[in-house]
UniProtKB/TrEMBL annotation, chain A:
SMART domains: AAA
Gene3D superfamilies with a match to the protein in the record: P-loop containing nucleotide triphosphate hydrolases (3.40.50.300)
Pfam family, one: ABC_tran
Sorted UniProt keywords: ATP-binding, Nucleotide-binding, Transport
Molecular function GO terms recorded: ATP binding; ATP hydrolysis activity
Protein name as annotated: ABC-2 type transport system ATP-binding protein
Location of the ABC transporter domain: 8-233
Entries under PROSITE patterns matching the protein: ABC_TRANSPORTER_2 (PS50893)
From TrEMBL, chain B:
Residues passing through the membrane, by range: 21-40, 60-81, 102-129, 141-163, 175-195, 238-258
Domain of life: Bacteria
Keywords: Membrane, Transmembrane, Transmembrane helix
Protein's name according to its UniProt entry: ABC-type transport system involved in multi-copper enzyme maturation, permease component
Length: 312, 265
């Protein structure tokens, strides 16, 4: 599906505002066909990076390209990239339709697209109301509609979930998944990990303007942990340890409580098979996701060791 | 460019600002000139020459030049609204060649300025000629000269609207820009004239150049008299037009060049 996908590339990007270095020697790529989360705590430099990607802010040094070209040199900028920043970027006296019609004209997109998007994004009823009365959810929808006017192959969305209620988030996830499934390149920033963890395939994590980690979510999150309930817990722990000393893989077994183990580095079938081979009883096996919040916290506070925070 | 102009027209027509502006033109043109003609300049305090004299007619029309802050303010509001409501970022996303955005705005607002000027001039002409006829006064200038002077005022209004656009692009903060534009045109220039020596610059300042268009010497004369200085000589109308044109060009150049590399955050 990603035959005509465009790669977003940030290379040695730096932005200084006087004393403050908002972004420092940042490099990463965003691939088509997947959703990439651009994560970092407040003030990490996410918005600044995305503004440099779209030519709104000039980098102090480094380059940011979309499909190999800087944004300003794209032949059809709004037909190639849909970007969304401020949730409040509307003239309060304009209706949703007015707003979209202005930008449809500006980008040379047909007016039929305006009606189409108003329906598609659930704004049909609010179409002719002035934006000053819009709720946060409606504003985010209108913002997204504006970004989608040119049916772009690349989406750069800065905190699209900001202020959305759970229902709104679920809706947004659905829309974004659909867009990525069509082979689009989707980058969404967030300072709240839990907001995007069910959504993103890849992640780029930055802190204080610098790259902390980048790569597929599954790799960065590490293998899932397995919670094992067994009356033979002690023996099982010892068996697991010796078997893996031979296999040479990294495995960690923590005793959580009486008869309860947490195994890192081996999945549930692996644990079950091993137990069966040694005639040990297992009453319950629960696959735990690595606490993603914990990972994010680790990444952004720098406690994570370098071998896991791979910087690809 | 046609895309950008279509977008700017849509933006302009989506709010009722343009209606208000044209109503203001009718009120200032027809309403104000009609009322002043009805009272008669000879009954002003201090009195001006009557409508049956050339100076009287020129003065009445010259006063219209002082309403130029209205279209200038409209231009300023229009451009700064993009920064105030933070749509500038969206606009520059859709049109990353920023000078084209400002060029489209200048072109669009030149049309609005022309509409403003035409409404102002035509209602003023109608009011002046009607009142003169009603009062049985023969105007000190032939009707076609009155219309020609009003035509020049219309063009001056276009220029002022563009100056407003340029200043808005320069200052960006709506309130600050409005204070500068209205403050200068409404009061600033007059205050400047109080400074000895500086008043010699009056003929080449926007107000002086506008006055030159209609050969409206009242302010210049009053100023010379008050300050006891040598008579301040207005430029010939054509030179006044040239000076105004230069102001518009400068404002446009500011509008085109300044946003080029500025960060939009
Ligand atoms: N125009 C500016 N002038 C000065 N400093 C700026 C400017 N814009 C951003 N900064 C600074 O650069 C740093 C990065 O800001 P940025 O908005 O990119 O962070 P962010 O990751 O988007 O944060 P948030 O999650 O709060 O949106 C911050 O320290 C911020 O104060
Ligand atoms: Mg931000």
């Amino acid at each position: 599906m990603s035959t005509d996908g465009l790669t977003v590339e940030v290379s040695h990007l730096t932005k200084r505002y006087g004393e403050i270095t908002a972004v420092r020697d940042l490099s990463f790529t965003v691939e088509p066909g997947v959703i990439t989360g651009f994560l970092g705590p407040n003030g990490a430099g996410k918005t600044t990076t995305m503004r440099m990607l779209t030519g709104l802010v000039s980098p102090t040094s480094g380059t940011a390209t979309i499909g190999g070209k800087p944004y300003k040199r794209l032949a059809r900028p709004s037909g190639t990239v849909g970007a969304m920043f401020d949730a409040n970027a509307f003239h309060p006296g304009h209706t949703a339709r007015d707003h979209l019609r202005v930008y449809a004209a500006m980008g040379g997109h047909p007016d039929s697209r305006v009606t189409e998007l108003l329906h598609q994004l659930g704004l049909a009823e609010a179409a002719d109301r002035r934006t000053r009365g819009f709720s946060t959810g409606m504003r985010q929808r209108l913002n997204l509609a504006t970004a989608l006017l040119g049916d772009p192959r690349v989406l750069l969305l800065d905190e699209p979930g900001n202020g959305l209620d759970p229902e709104g988030m679920a809706w947004l996830r659905g829309v974004l998944r659909g867009l990525a499934a069509d082979g689009r390149t989707v980058l969404i920033s967030s300072h709240v990990l839990s907001e995007v963890q069910q959504l993103v395939d890849d992640v780029v994590v930055i802190r204080r303007g610098e790259l902390v980690a980048a790569g597929p979510w599954s790799r960065l999150a590490g293998p899932p942990a397995v919670l094992v309930t067994s009356p033979d817990a002690e023996t099982l722990a010892a068996t697991l340890a010796t078997s893996h000393a031979n296999a040479g893989t990294v495995l960690r077994v923590d005793t959580v409580g009486p008869g309860l183990l947490r195994v890192h580095g081996l999945d549930a079938p692996g644990v079950a098979d091993l137990a069966a081979a040694h005639r040990l009883r297992v009453h319950e096996l629960v696959t735990e996701n690595t606490s993603l919040e914990q990972l994010f916290l680790d990444l952004t506070t720098g406690t994570l060791t370098n071998d896991r925070a791979a910087t690809s | 460019m046609t895309h950008l102009m279509r977008a700017e027209f849509r933006r302009l027509l989506a709010t009722r600002m343009w209606v208000g502006l044209l109503i203001a033109a009718a009120v200032l043109g027809g309403g104000m000139i009609g009322a002043m003609a009805l009272v008669g300049p000879e009954n002003f305090d201090p009195p001006l020459p009557g409508l049956d004299t050339e100076t009287g007619v020129r003065s009445l029309l010259g006063i219209l030049g002082y309403t130029a802050f209205v279209p200038a303010a409209a231009g300023t509001v229009a451009v700064t609204a993009e920064y105030r409501h933070r749509t500038a970022a969206v606009t520059f996303l859709f049109a990353p060649r920023r000078w084209q955005v400002l060029a489209a705005k200048l072109a669009t607002y030149a049309v609005l300025g022309l509409a403003y000027g035409l409404v102002l001039a035509s209602t003023a002409a109608a009011a002046l000629l009607t009142v003169a006829a009603a009062r049985g006064v023969t105007l000190g200038l032939p009707a076609h000269t009155v219309l020609a002077l009003l035509g020049r005022i219309s063009v001056a209004m276009v220029v002022y609207l563009l100056i407003g656009v340029g200043m808005g692009a320069l200052i960006r903060n709506q309130v600050a820009a409005l204070c500068v534009v209205i403050g200068y045109l409404y009061m600033g220039e007059t205050l400047l004239m109080m400074i000895p020596g500086v008043n010699m610059l009056y003929p080449v300042l926007p107000g002086g150049a506008t006055a030159a268009l209609t050969d409206f010497t009242y302010v210049a004369d009053a100023m010379s008299e008050q300050l006891g200085s040598a008579t301040i000589q207005l430029l010939p109308p054509a030179a006044g037009a040239l000076v105004l044109g230069m102001y518009a060009l400068t404002a446009a150049a500011i509008g085109l060049v300044l946003p080029m590399r500025r960060d939009i955050t």
